[in-house]
Design a protein that fits this description.
The structure is a homodimer.
Chain A (H helix, E strand, L loop, with lengths): L1 H10 L4 H10 L13 H12 L11 H4 L46 H10 L8 H9 L2 H11 L6 H13 L7 H6 L8 H12 L16 E3 L16 H4 L7 E3 L21 H13 L5 H12 L30
Antiparallel strand pairs in A: 1-2
Helix pairs in contact in A: 3-8, 5-8, 10-13, 12-13
Chain lengths: ~325, ~325
């Protein structure tokens, strides 16, 4: 701090060496803006992300549960699926999801592309089939044209569909949070409470799991290491993928980026208050009962992780026509 | 045409007198772009329009059934409401709805502002109450601030909420359709089939009801004048408002603007093909059985009424906090 002050006085600006040092030493790294290499593919993916015709009802789109006006989540404990079915688990945010080691809470999809195919054909979510979703898209000349110009063929297949959706999702990063401004050297952007909260966050060991640019998303951890996590949710996490008993109740560590926007918390979405989530994590994972002041400061710190939200024009979807399969929201079968 | 050609050859540009003549004589008038007088109010209204927290489930927003990526409609026969209830009637497009003589198919709301309060508290739609919706908004400091700066008070009331939503909806006009370009004097923008279709549209009397800038929306008419309209939908239309037997099966004439995007058609949403809708209207309302060529040409003409769609950035909704009432999508009461 002293060195920094001298530096400011001497040069009237921030000191590059100090910035570099901070960037190197902190366990959380800044999120950088994306560079869009294939704008046409991203635009197509955006349309698909917002297109409810990928669902059997014609009502549910990717954006229904990963709402880009609400932190890329639905802000519900678990999602509402086809015919108002109650989903089994909390919808993770799509923001910065390209930084996850794998997708879904149990990591059963290795990539965003693999993930994107799941909800479309999940009977509890969008309840379509890949065959039906492709029939819908292939019936629409404007879609055929876009796919042809990007993929060299208008014989739209599911790999192209999920590739385009993933390309759009890769753009959904949230740079420029106040925390990132601080990481990059702006000392005036965080309050003392926020800095204290960050210090506690590091001191008690949160950064063992919540690290890297996304402050999470890079590993699977048992939910309830010191004390068990009490929940009515039957999900058992990673064991469903690996079959290993050691992975029971192991879940992907969620990103803490934009955590202010992605309530309610945990895989069961049972906790709406960030203070509650901080308290629980400290006790259950680290065996620490934190005083209220620390919880409040850590909560204040976590809110500095809210970055610039995706900022784009709403897509216009090409209309269906006489050849397009008709959605059946109320069919009884 | 000859006069116009001479005019073009002489001046190298379109002839103002001819344009004025066309504008004066045609039963459909162009839609003009809106001028936004109160941008802050429109921005607030946009947020409210997209905010699912105005519903009891936290899942349904105005945009769910008046989807601005899909012609301001949901492209379903009738809408999906709270807990997947099947709505009683087709959701009319919100596009150009400020030009309607009244709102809803039966005109039971005189203004957009009056309309906007309805779905929020309708148990079959968003299923909230005005009290609960206001509690949600009042709990959110960013909303309170916006309301205060626009309405001079942060004691948000339902009149302010619906006023802001209506202000946003008033911006949802769709100028610059190919038909409007033709109306304004561009002779090269319509095909012969489209022009022929428009001529038939006028000749057989469609313009008696579908006139003005919105090509409809200005009157109530009996559905099935010459022949009865066969439907399973029990709605009886305007009689519900006036109590007059003469208004039984009388509905607001829908706008034909963007009709290419607002399928399926009629108050029961029973017809997905525009050709079918044209054929039915000609027979039921005007007693004319049209040959296929006329139907095809009129359909081609109707597709020239697709205008520039609302083009705006997706809103970012201010987050809930510990004081915000929690949505209850799966409550059993």
């Amino acid at each position: 701090m002293n060195r920094h002050l001298i530096c400011m006085l001497l040069t009237g600006s921030l000191c590059a060496p100090l910035q570099a040092e901070r960037l190197k030493n902190e366990p959380i790294q800044p999120i950088e803006p994306t560079h869009i290499d294939e704008p046409a593919k991203v635009e197509l993916g955006k349309k698909l992300f917002f297109d409810p015709r990928l669902s059997r009802s014609g009502f549910i789109s990717c954006n229904s549960c990963h709402n880009l006006s609400m932190g890329g989540s639905d802000n519900l404990p678990s999602s509402i699926g086809h015919k108002w079915q109650e989903g089994p688990i909390n919808s993770p945010t799509v923001l910065n999801s390209s930084m996850n080691v794998a997708q879904f809470w149990d990591g059963r999809a290795a990539t965003l592309q693999e993930q994107a195919g799941g909800p479309i054909s999940n009977p509890m979510e969008m309840a379509s089939t890949h065959v039906l979703a492709l029939d819908v898209l292939r019936s629409i000349p404007q879609y055929r044209q876009e796919f042809a110009s990007i993929y060299g063929s208008d014989q739209i297949d599911i790999k192209q569909v999920t590739d385009a959706i993933a390309a759009f999702e890769e753009t959904l990063v949230t740079p420029n949070s106040r925390f990132d401004q601080w990481l990059k050297g702006d000392d005036n952007v965080l309050t003392q409470a926020e800095l204290d909260g960050y210090q506690t966050f590091k001191d008690i060991g949160c950064t063992a799991c919540h690290n890297g640019p996304a402050a999470g998303g890079t590993s699977f951890q048992r939910m309830g290491i010191v004390e068990p996590y009490v929940t009515k949710n039957p999900a058992e996490g990673r064991v469903a993928v690996t079959g290993k008993d050691a992975d029971r109740f192991s879940f992907k560590v969620p990103t803490l980026r934009n955590v202010e926007l992605t309530y309610p918390y945990f895989h069961d979405g049972a906790h709406w208050k960030l203070e509650e989530a901080v308290d629980l994590m400290a006790r259950l994972q680290l065996g620490r009962k934190l005083p209220k002041e620390d919880i409040d400061n850590m909560t204040a710190f976590l809110k500095t992780l809210t970055g610039d939200q995706p900022d784009f024009r709403i897509p216009q979807l090409p209309p269906s026509n006489n050849a397009t399969p008709i959605p059946v929201p109320f069919a009884t079968e």
